[in-house]
Design brief:
This protein is mainly α. The protein is built from 2 helices and no strands. About 0% of the residues are buried.
Length: about 60
């Protein structure tokens, strides 16, 4: 795989963990997965993008 061995991949992984932190890695992975999914659906001709609407928040006086 691109001439990278196990040692090099472990060093890259360690650098990524140091830069982003272990808590943010799942968020980054999820975002990357969603981006790839949307990119593939765009290439296949599907015009729909799976976006869930955000919950509207009411001002404090109207609850």
């Amino acid at each position: 795989m691109f001439g990278l061995g196990t040692t090099e991949l472990l060093v890259i992984l360690a650098i990524v963990v140091l830069l982003f932190g272990a808590r943010r890695l799942p968020e980054i992975g999820s975002g990357l997965g969603s981006a790839i999914k949307n990119f593939k659906s765009g290439l296949s001709g599907k015009d729909e993008i799976d976006v869930t609407p955000e919950k509207e928040e009411l001002p404090k006086g109207e609850q």
